[in-house]
Give the backbone structure.
Amino acid sequence: MSKPTEFVDLEAARAAKGLRLVVVAGLPSPWSEAAKGIFRTKGIPFVVVRVGPQDREVRQWTRSRNAPVAMYDDEPARTGWADILELSERIGGSRSLVPDGASDRVRMFGLAHEVLGEGGLAWNGRIVTIAEGLATGGVRGFPPFVATYLASRYGFVPERVELAKSRAKEALALLGDQLGAKPYFFGTELTALDVYSAATMNVLEPMPEEQCPMMPPIRHAFESMRGELGEIPRVLLEHRARMYAEHLELPIVT
């Protein structure tokens, strides 16, 4: 799927058949970018609707407070990363993104949870960015109004910040070890974990503005957190560069 992602308004999405994705507007959310990347790498056509904090009509349509949401024909909405991946595998597309072997399959889903699951790398990175925003008045981390809004969504409590940092560092080490010198996490075959890792690196080590445009306060939030979770293994950043050069869309459009 080489053509640019097609963004449509709510009415066009409601009228359409096939696959519609609802994604967070204005920032490269790892979960939203991962969902787009999964369907893109499989060559499955889709259109995208943006959702912001005040978009009540979109949320009424999806019946979800969260994004991304995958809407396929008249089927129930999917919101979790694993549910979205399983939907993509059922639709088919040009390739599978799940390993054939049982042990590799179990390991991929386990590592994917460490990246995108609740309590995983992206989640814990968000917790730390919220904490810094609240503690510094936005000098580091999210602006206070964003940090306050997200705190309730992520179950933020100050006592969990150190655990969040520790778990995030563990996840980065696990990913680096799994990737090693291989082109992809499971050798020569692309899997969903490759998409998830690349999407998550965008908020831990943001790409330049021309490749990943975002609102200035959000860019400041992510860039101000560099090093907070320790050094990102270089192989993960090199892997992201390959993923966006060969499989994903640049510039990222949010």
In short: The mean pLDDT is 95. The chain is about 50% helix and 5% strand. Residues 204 and 227 are 9 Å apart (CA to CA).
